[in-house]
Design brief:
By secondary structure, this protein is an alpha+beta fold. It has 9 helices and 16 strands. It has a 5-stranded antiparallel sheet with strand order 14-13-12-15-16, with helices on both faces. A 4-stranded parallel sheet has the order 2-1-6-7, covered by helices on one side. Strands 8-11-9-10 form a 4-stranded antiparallel sheet, covered by helices on one side. The radius of gyration is 21 Å and the shape is globular. About 30% of the residues are buried.
Length: about 300
Amino acid sequence: MTILLWGLLADDPMAAVHARLRELNAPVRFLDQRRVLDTTVRISAGRTRVTVAGEEFDLDAVRAAYVRPHDSTRLPAVRTRPPAAPEWRHAAEVDQVLNAWTDRTPAYVLNRPEAGASNGSKPYQLRIVAAAGFLVPPTVVTNDPARVAAFLGEHGDVIVKSTSGIRSRVRRVGPADTVRLPDVRTCPTQFQRHVPGTDVRVHVVGTDVFAVEVDSEADDYRYARAQGLRPPVLTGIDLPDDVAARCRDLAKRLGLPVAGIDLRRTPDGEWYCFEVNPSPGFTYYESKTGQPIAAAIAGLLAAAALCKERPA
């Protein structure tokens, strides 16, 4: 009946969920990635056991798990080592085995790496977004400068963003970018028609839906301060029932019990969806609005741990 947490306590969402679980007196085992060089994982007779500094723990005792692993090879104790070094190889192997475990375990995992893989291809994810009933902006992914020029001519106001899950700054394509269009030959790049309106960030936790309206002058409100603009103002709101239902459906289609969904409400009341984050940094929104997102995640884990049969 154990709940496993895997990641770093320096990570705010992990720390918040850990704190809420402690308030519930839930049976928690925290697997700290900072101790990766003291950690070994052994698979024997179909069972997976983790040993940290001599203390062994059987992962088959886990009923629920919240995982936000970072790349252990980038931790301070490892990143200065070359890939051929034993420490680097050890950290990479621990990550590999534990990631495989989170995909195959019958425990209730928030969220399985396999489910998060859709975030690696934004164009693929947009197909699922559209299937859930949300509008998506006209989009082109190309390394052909002529195709980009044609798209700009057709839509005029266009933004550029990464096609993968690697964080990038969303920004408008301006006149000064025209001379840089040949640069797309080196990497397929995603362009979308700009959609005017108000950003709304939605966190789905099981069947709970927490929505936050974001008032910002920036194209990408995460970088408003860096652009010298006023900080975004966040306000908790209630979504229309049909939009909330679409958010739940979208998270379910992606296999994500916990999801961060980026919406935009247009002045005409239409709802666009840009992408879904499979491991959302929800604490920023929680700290601004007081929404109990960490408590909802902790409650989901605690309920799963109490189930006599492990959730599918």
